[in-house]
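Onboarding guide, step 5: your first structure request.
Type a short instruction followed by the sequence, for example:

Predict the 3D structure of this protein.
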Amino acid sequence: MKILKSTLIFVIAVATFSFSQSSSTYTRYGIGDLNYTYSARSLGLGKTGTALQNQDFVEVLNPSSWSALKFTRVEFSLVLNGVQLSDNKLSKFYTDAEFKGFTFAFPISEKYGIGFASGLIPYSRISYKVVESKQAVATYSSDYTATYEGNGGLSRLFMGSSYITPIDWVVGISFEYYFGKQTYSSSLEFVNPSHLPAEFELDYRSTGFGTTLGVLSENLSGLFNSEAISNLRIGVSVNLISELNTDTSLTINPKTVADTITSGSTKTKIPIRVASGITLQLDEEYNFNLDYIYQPWSDYTVGGVHSEFLRDVHRFGLGFEYLPKRKPGSTKWEQIIWRAGLSYELTQYVIYGHDITQYSAFAGLSFPLGVGNSFDFGFQYSLRGTTESNLIKENFFRINVGISFGELWFLRVER
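The system replies with structure tokens like these:
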């Protein structure tokens, strides 16, 4: 029960630490920034791992990776975000923190590569706040301050399994439930106290189902006549989401007597996401991952209406991982796993004809806490956007910390 006690302590610590602040203004479009993974380990690898098979971590990019599980695993993750927003005149820095989710997984059959995994992780996030002071537009009016704010996103609750086919290729599937609320609000505060403030709030509450299908090749290192190549695999995963049922409501002047509320229901279409990757391992110690993710956000609609501010996502990621061989008598410091990564992303945002691109660098490590347990750390630094056409340029970092617990459960005792 040690793993359950540690889990409870970690959840309590996270619950007292989580808070929210303003972040990227680009998240006002669509469903916000996308989360490709949740863990500190994957962040340190440049958010790659579609073709990675690892027994010591729970990977969510490809459900086929669960076939290598050796322990029952519970993993948690927490992120500290910092972003510097700059335009042609001003520059400000903001921070916030968020709980990135948890996963629970365990092996069922090592022979058939059957592993089970479940968890709750974010799919997207909206977080922005813009305050602007404006002058009166007429002599009878008043100077005022306009505030635009948004928060929320989508979360993914999943469970699934993997299986090794007779030709040694692995297939995996996860069944998913998506839910979340996206809130967009704006308000006007007038300097003249005789002018009542104006406030508007638009809410979307979305729910629906989806699935992720994954395929992982057998070890293809035998195709090359090289003893240095110990593992070579390719992987593909496809994420499909049904049209989400979305309840909408518009609230006008919610703090005054004359409230006006309209509501209805519609459908939100989330486009298919395809991830592909290749993993190369040398001398059983050096892992190299190359991933590509495509998602046509030009197909995104709410109530059948497309957004002019969204385009297709193309993301390329490169990750490196050093896995020291486990030797008798080696210290914990000698068992640290080191990671690094780079990525280029043509994001889903296109503003005034400008494609918003993102360049990122990553680093990370896993410090062993015992057999099957580790403390994980990941760091990301990114540049996104431009100051042209009065747009916003972002310099932001993420510090991701996580804990991975592993224990032997469900062992059959021979009598």
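Each response can be followed by summary notes, for example: Residues 1-22 have pLDDT under 50 and may be disordered.
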